[in-house]
TrEMBL record:
Keywords: Kinase, Membrane, Phosphoprotein, Transferase, Transmembrane, Transmembrane helix, Two-component regulatory system. The chain crosses the membrane at residues 249-273. The keyword Oxidoreductase does not apply. The lineage of its organism: Bacteria, Pseudomonadati, Bacteroidota, Flavobacteriia, Flavobacteriales. It comes from Muriicola soli. This is histidine kinase.
Amino acid sequence: MSLSLIGIISVQLYWIKRSVDDKEEQFSNAIAEVLNRVTDKIEEREMRDYSDRFLSLKDSLGVVKSSHLSNIFFIDRDSNSNEITFYSHGILEEDYNIASTFFDSVTGDSTQIKNVTSKRTKTIYKEEYGLDGRGYRLNPIQKLEKIGGLSTVDKAVFDDVYREYAENVPIHKRVSKQEIELLLNQELSNMAIDTDFQYGIYSRGLPTKVKSRRFKFAESTIYKAPIFKNSEGSSNFTLLLTFPKKKKFLLESVLGMAFLSLLFTLVIVIAYASAIHQLIRQKQISEIKSDFINNMTHEFKTPIATINLAVEAIRNPKIIGDQEKVMRYLQMIRDENKRMHAQVENVLRISKLERNQLDISKDRVKVHALIHKAISHVELIVLDRGGYINTHLDAERDEILANDMHFGNVLVNILDNAIKYSPDAPKIDVHTEVAKNYIIIKIEDQGAGMSKAVLKKVFEKFYREHTGDIHNVKGHGLGLAYVKKIVEDHQGEVSAESEKGKGSTFYIKMPLI
């Protein structure tokens, strides 16, 4: 499952990267097309300007200085259809002797501009002999005439003339910044590219005056196309285009898809992590419950064995007549029965607490009185083991709203733990103090202590430490879970500090009345 999840994440990241790369390639192709369109439009506009200026000058002069007409004829006869084709093509060359200022030429020589007009005529005649005896005649059945058109070669010659003269004009007079910006904005808008750009025209690798204010040359991020090409397709000028925010634009274009992909992948990762966590948690709970059942079986096994032995002893004819021994065995059975009953009650109490079925009524009680009462329950055991319980009840106020029995059990449980987990003679100190509107109860022992890992789980139900001698201490891991539930039900807080081999300290913080 982990390998599959890693594979899914890797594939997602790979496709996101591929998408960005594809977008970048599409972007580059689109920019190349934009640059080609812009340069073509600028060149066409320049040629159109020269043509318009020439026509306006020609119309203003009006008089032809000199003219020359050349004519070519072609005649063809088709004997099958009796058709004769006449074709003629005349070239009329008119010289207006326009001044050199037309091209803004840097030279002082005169410039000759000629107007060439083409006239094409095609006529087809059909030979017919009249039935009425009038004889032979030619009947025109098709006539085609074109005037003013020039061939592709003728047009190329004129374009070449314009280009040659235009090369002598400075670049900033041939094209303006406003024209470049307008055309670039139009073409980029047509391509749905909405991001900032900077441009510049370079001549043989050197910058010209025609460039945007923030244009910076960077070989790796520049798009370029030749501008003002000559008849051979080469040019000394290059239009350069850069996009400072290209990466952001490309990422935004795939952001929606990438976000959804990463979101769904994150959901899968969270679900997977949650499933693994639940599996580990269930395994831990299973182990804890198995341990609890084993402990419970052990705890019940001893009193049941004792009761069985006592019953067998009473059934003995020699014992049944001894009233004193019978009473002693009956008391033993009663004590062991109470012990089992207390264990069952402890388990049931925790179960009811979890289901909020335990009815806990609260009254005004004094904490110091509850502490003394709890100490009296365990004092004999402590003294029997050669230990002590010292009290340092320094709180000026000690009245809280609590359930006498349950809160007393809380104190008894903590004291009982301090006794059980003290390998030597139990040495316990109980402190109280007031902090704002709370009373702090501190129960400190010098026992075995707990590691940090154990300290994190010490208030969990069924949890018990199983290392060293502590494994032999009787219990079900319910005592401190019960303590936490009761204290929280009283709107209080319970916490612990401990260090392995140096004892533990439990803190209970309760709101004062």
